[in-house]
């Protein structure tokens, strides 16, 4: 599979089914400009249709993972005839679309966080299914420091960690070190900086060896049931498991387990 060439968002596909997307605006701290959000949206739409992709790793170039929205771009639009309202609405909607696309993507998404992730950057990490962080990584939602509460990052953050620590981050804007982020549940693993990419790719590679059909069913069911009452969650997941049991890969996997051999997935 060929590597992507978008200068804002580099795409690299591997033969194992792991696709690595790299935010590539290091001079702007990988801030989420309108164009960057568009590149992300386009890439996620393409990946959702690409059965060759089994897992996505979302990384970033330079020392900062993502500094959130592009404040210079936002400030420039204050000179618009409507004082920026139209652009602000469009930017927030595009950002919300991207974050929801990460959650809705059939393939699992792993954030590979090498540095600071602030505001909408922290939101993006919280939106990913899994996250691996460098020991140097830090996380915060510092909107309150500039008179702008991180309301949209709060949506993802409050779904990734408990309410009280999420609200403390939102109300104080305090920087949370990687180890604390792991304790809160915002990231899964914290490793030395030199081991970060290898660790993220190893985790992605492990997931990529599983039935893509089962993983896709499971990811969708996991996110769906979280918003349901307990009885409806069980009903939904029971229906999903029934469909999963009827799939070729489930028959193959169970048969392989009983026969003590390795399964051969058909991804259906």
From TrEMBL:
It is an enzyme of class 4 (lyase). It comes from the Bacteria. It holds the Pfam family ECH_1. Keywords: Fatty acid metabolism, Lipid metabolism, Lyase. The keyword NADP does not apply. CDD domains: crotonase-like. Its EC number is 4.2.1.17. GO terms for molecular function: enoyl-CoA hydratase activity. This is Enoyl-CoA hydratase. It comes from Falsiroseomonas tokyonensis.
């Amino acid at each position: 599979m060929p590597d992507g060439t978008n200068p804002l968002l580099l795409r690299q596909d591997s033969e194992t089914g792991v696709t690595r997307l790299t935010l590539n605006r290091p001079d702007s701290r990988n801030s989420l400009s309108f164009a960057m959000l568009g590149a992300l949206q386009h890439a996620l739409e393409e990946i959702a249709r690409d059965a060759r992709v089994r897992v996505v790793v979302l990384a970033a170039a330079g020392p900062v993972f993502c500094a959130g929205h592009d404040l210079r771009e936002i400030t420039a639009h204050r000179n618009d005839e409507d004082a920026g309202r139209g652009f602000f609405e469009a930017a927030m909607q595009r950002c919300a679309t991207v974050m929801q696309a990460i959650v809705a993507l059939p393939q699992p998404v792993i954030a590979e966080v090498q540095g600071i992730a602030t505001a909408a950057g922290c939101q993006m990490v919280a939106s990913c299914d899994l996250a691996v962080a460098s020991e140097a990584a830090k996380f915060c939602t510092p909107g309150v420091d500039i008179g702008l509460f991180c309301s949209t990052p709060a949506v993802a953050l409050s779904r990734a960690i408990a309410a009280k620590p999420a609200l403390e981050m939102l109300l104080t804007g305090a920087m949370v070190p990687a180890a604390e982020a792991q304790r809160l549940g915002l990231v899964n693993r914290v490793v030395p900086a030199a081991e970060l990419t290898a660790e993220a790719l190893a985790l992605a590679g492990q997931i990529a060896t599983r039935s893509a059909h089962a993983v896709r069913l499971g990811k969708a069911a996991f996110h769906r049931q979280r918003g349901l009452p307990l009885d409806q969650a069980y009903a939904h997941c029971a229906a999903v498991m029934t469909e999963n049991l009827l799939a070729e890969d489930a028959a193959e996997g169970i048969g392989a387990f009983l026969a003590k051999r390795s399964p051969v997935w058909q991804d259906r």
